[in-house]
Design brief:
Elements: H1 9-17, E1 20-24, E2 30-33, H2 48-54, E3 59-65, E4 68-74, E5 81-88, E6 96-104, E7 111-116, E8 124-131, E9 134-135, E10 139-142, E11 153-158, H3 169-175, E12 183-186, E13 194-196, E14 215-218, E15 223-225, H4 229-239, H5 243-251, E16 254-256, H6 285-298, E17 319-323, E18 327-331, E19 365-368, H7 369-378, H8 386-398, E20 403-408, E21 416-418, E22 432-436, H9 444-453, E23 460-464, E24 470-476, E25 486-492, H10 501-511, H11 513-517, H12 520-524, H13 527-534, E26 538-542, E27 546-553, E28 557-565, E29 577-585, E30 588-593
Parallel strand pairs: 11-12, 12-16, 18-20, 20-23, 23-25
Antiparallel strand pairs: 1-2, 1-7, 3-4, 4-7, 5-6, 5-8, 8-9, 8-10, 11-27, 13-15, 14-15, 17-18, 19-22, 21-22, 24-25, 24-26, 27-28, 28-29, 29-30
Helix pairs in contact: 3-5, 4-6
C-alpha cells in the first residue's frame, strides 16, 4: 500500500536544500521554512525539571524507513507556540543534518509530528526540540536498512499497558537493553479507556485518571469510560507522562498498531459494546472519530489522517515495514473493518453457552465451540475486511524476506478449553469452549482462508498481544488435526501492566453469581493446564505473567525471548525478572524450547 505524500519526491529534495521539512499536526502536511541560522546552532541543554515541564510527554520517533522516520513531541501552551528541532548524526550535535521550525497549535493539543526523508539508510540519528529557549531531552532513533541489506535484526514487542494503579516496569527493563533494539513493535491497547473499572483496576495515589467528561457505563459499579476527544487526549497525556514510557520512546523508534481499548472494549467499527445490548445499538461515529484523532495526535505513527472525511475514510493504519533482507512485518487493523460479534449479547441462547442476558458470557467469552462453528459457517464474519485481507495474503506470499511476520493485535491460534472431564463443572459447562471469540476464534472461516493461502509461505511468524499472558503456539494447516503440517509459529506477549488473564478470570468469576456458584473458581485455577491439554498446539502458556518480548531475526535463526516481570502494582520494581527463550530454524516452522 503506497503512502500518500503531499509533496512529490522532486519537490521534497528542493525543500531539503532550503532547510524545509514536511511537518504538521493534522494532514494536509504543511511546509515550514527554517529561515534563520539559530536553528542550525546546537541548542543549549536545559535543567531536567525545566525540560520535563516544557515537554511533559517527552519525545519519540516512529515508523523508520531507509530514508527517514517520523519525530514526535508535545509542548503544552495556551496559544500557538513555535518549536524548533534538530537532527544530527552524533549526540554532540556537531553534525546537524536537518533542522527547522514548526508550530504547536491547540488543534492538535499542541502535539507535533515531523516526517523526515532523504536521510542515510541503516544509520543512528539523534534529535531534540526547543520551545521558549527550553530544550527537550535528546532522542535517539535510526533509519531502516535497505531491503537487500544482510542485517540481523532485534526488535521488542509489547502490548496492553493499563496506567490505573499499575506501573510500567517492563519499559525500564527494556531501556537497559535499548542499545540492542532496532525498534519496538507495539501490538495494541496503548491506553485503556476507563477512568474507573473496579473489577479490573485498582487506582492508587499518583496512579489514577480523571476524565473531563466521561461516559457512565455502570453507576452502581462505578464504571466510567472515555467518550469525547478531551477524554481520550487526557488518557494519552497521562499515560505518556510515565517516566519509563517516556524513556523507552526517547531511546527507540516505535512501530504501532491499535486494538480495542484505544476506543472501547471489544469494539467493532464505530460500535462499542459497553452496555451489552441493554441500550440497543452502540453505534457512535463521534466517539470513534475522537478516539482515532487522539491516537493519531499522540503517537509517532507515519500514516495519513483526514479529520474531515469521517469514519472509516479518515485513516488507514494497516501497512508493511521492510527491515533489511531478513524481515517483512505486515501490520493489520483488526477493529476498523470487522463485523459485529456473531452471537448477540442480549438474548439467551443456551446451545452456544449464552446463559445470561445482556452479558458477554456466551457471546464474546466461553462459547460452545461446536455450536459456534455451526453458526459461523452459516454466517461467516470478517475481521480484516476484503481489501485488507487480500493485501495481507498477497503481501506475505510475494515477500522475499527470510522471515514474514504478521503483527496481529489479537491471538490467531485457537484458544480452546475442554471442560467435559472437569468434575467441578456443572452440566452446562461440561463442553468444549472457545475462550474468547472477540479474537480470531470468533472468525474461524476467515482465519482458515488466510492460513490456507499462507500455507506455502516459508518462515511465517505471528506476533500478537491482547490476552495478557505469554503463549507460544505452532500454527497448523488444519486446526484440530495433530497430524496436519506445521506451517508457522505464533508468539503472544503478556501485558506491560494490564491485569493478567489469570487474575482477570478470577475477578470475573468472583463477580458473577452463576460462575461463582458453579465451581468455576476451581476451573480457573487450572487454566493453563487445561489450555495445554485442550489445545496441544501450545508449546508454552503462562496466563499470570507481565512483561514483553524480544525477537532476534537472522539469516538462519529466529530467537524469541519472553521477559517476565512482577511487581506491577508497586511504584518501585522488585527486580524480579525471568527469561524464557524459544527458537526457530529457517525452513523448519516448528518451535524449539531453549529454556
Amino acid at each position: 500500500m503506497a503512502r500518500k505524500n503531499s509533496l512529490d519526491r522532486r519537490d521534497f529534495v528542493k525543500s531539503v536544500a532550503l532547510g524545509t521539512v514536511t511537518a504538521g499536526s493534522l494532514l494536509p502536511w504543511k511546509n515550514v521554512l527554517a529561515d534563520d541560522a539559530s536553528v542550525s546552532t546546537p541548542f543549549p541543554e536545559s535543567e531536567e525539571a525545566e525540560s520535563d515541564k516544557m515537554f511533559p510527554q517527552g519525545v519519540g520517533s516512529g515508523d523508520p524507513r531507509p530514508d527517514g522516520f517520523l519525530l514526535w513531541t508535545r509542548t503544552p501552551s495556551t496559544a500557538p507556540l513555535e518549536v524548533r528541532f534538530q537532527v544530527a548524526e552524533s549526540m554532540s550535535f556537531d553534525d546537524i543534518v536537518r533542522h527547522g521550525k514548526v508550530t504547536a497549535s491547540p488543534d492538535s493539543d499542541f502535539t507535533i509530528r515531523i516526517r523526515l526523508e532523504g536521510l542515510e539508510p541503516n544509520r543512528r540519528y539523534w534529535y531534540r526540540f526547543q520551545a521558549n529557549d527550553v530544550s527537550s531531552p535528546i532522542g535517539r532513533t535510526r533509519t531502516a536498512p535497505l531491503p537487500d541489506d544482510d542485517h540481523p535484526t532485534k526488535i521488542a514487542f509489547a502490548s496492553c499497558q493499563d496506567y490505573i494503579g499499575r506501573w510500567f516496569h517492563a519499559w525500564r527493563v527494556l531501556a537497559e537493553r535499548a542499545e540492542e533494539i532496532d525498534f519496538v513493535l507495539f501490538l495494541g491497547d496503548y491506553i485503556y479507556e476507563y477512568e474507573r473499572y473496579p473489577q479490573l483496576q485498582e487506582p492508587q495515589p499518583g496512579r489514577s485518571i480523571k476524565l473531563p467528561d466521561g461516559l457512565v457505563i455502570d453507576a452502581d459499579e462505578g464504571i466510567i469510560a472515555a467518550h469525547t476527544l478531551a477524554d481520550y487526549r487526557e488518557l494519552y497525556r497521562t499515560a505518556r507522562s510515565d517516566k519509563n514510557l517516556r524513556e523507552i520512546h526517547r531511546l527507540c523508534p516505535f512501530v504501532i498498531i491499535w486494538d480495542d481499548h484505544e476506543h472501547a472494549n471489544d469494539a467493532w467499527q464505530d460500535h462499542a459494546v459497553d452496555f451489552n445490548d441493554k441500550k440497543g445499538s452502540e453505534k457512535d461515529p463521534t466517539r470513534r472519530q475522537a478516539a482515532t484523532r487522539a491516537w493519531f495526535e499522540y503517537l509517532p505513527i507515519d500514516v495519513d489522517y483526514h479529520a474531515d472525511r469521517g469514519f472509516p475514510d479518515d485513516i488507514v493504519t494497516w501497512r508493511k515495514m521492510r527491515w533489511g533482507k531478513h524481515l517483512d512485518v505486515f501490520l493489520t487493523d483488526e477493529r476498523y473493518y470487522r463485523d459485529d460479534h456473531l452471537v448477540p449479547e442480549g438474548p439467551l441462547n443456551p446451545r452456544v453457552g449464552k446463559l445470561l442476558p445482556f452479558s458477554p458470557l456466551g457471546s464474546r467469552t466461553m462459547c460452545v465451540k461446536s455450536v459456534f462453528d455451526e453458526l459461523e459457517a452459516k454466517s461467516p464474519r470478517t475481521m480484516l475486511g476484503h481489501q485488507q485481507r487480500d493485501w495481507l495474503i498477497e503481501s506475505a506470499r510475494g515477500s522475499d524476506a527470510t522471515w514474514k511476520v504478521w503483527a496481529s493485535a489479537l491471538m490467531v491460534s485457537p484458544f480452546i478449553l475442554d471442560l467435559r472431564q472437569q468434575k467441578h463443572a456443572p452440566p452446562a459447562f461440561r463442553n468444549v469452549f472457545y475462550f474468547k471469540t472477540d479474537q480470531w476464534d470468533g472468525f474461524p472461516s476467515e482465519r482458515n482462508q488466510i492460513l490456507r493461502e499462507l500455507s506455502e509461505v516459508s518462515n511465517l511468524v505471528v506476533l500478537s498481544g491482547d490476552l495478557h499472558g505469554f503463549y507460544a503456539a505452532e500454527i497448523r494447516s488444519e486446526w484440530g488435526d495433530l497430524n496436519s503440517s506445521v506451517i508457522g509459529a505464533e508468539f503472544t506477549v503478556a501485558g506491560i501492566s494490564s491485569i493478567s488473564l489469570q487474575e482477570q478470570v478470577d475477578a470475573i468469576t468472583a463477580s458473577q453469581p452463576l460462575l461463582a456458584k458453579s465451581g468455576f473458581a476451581e476451573l480457573s485455577a487450572q487454566l493453563d493446564d487445561n489450555l495445554r491439554e485442550s489445545s496441544p498446539h501450545f508449546v508454552h502458556a503462562n496466563s499470570q505473567g507481565y512483561g514483553l518480548g524480544i525477537a532476534s531475526f537472522g539469516a538462519d535463526q529466529l530467537e524469541i525471548e519472553f521477559l517476565v516481570i512482577g511487581g506491577v502494582r508497586e511504584p518501585e520494581w522488585d527486580g524480579k525478572l525471568e527469561s524464557i527463550r524459544f527458537g526457530m530454524t529457517s525452513g523448519r516452522p516448528t518451535i524449539q524450547v531453549l529454556t
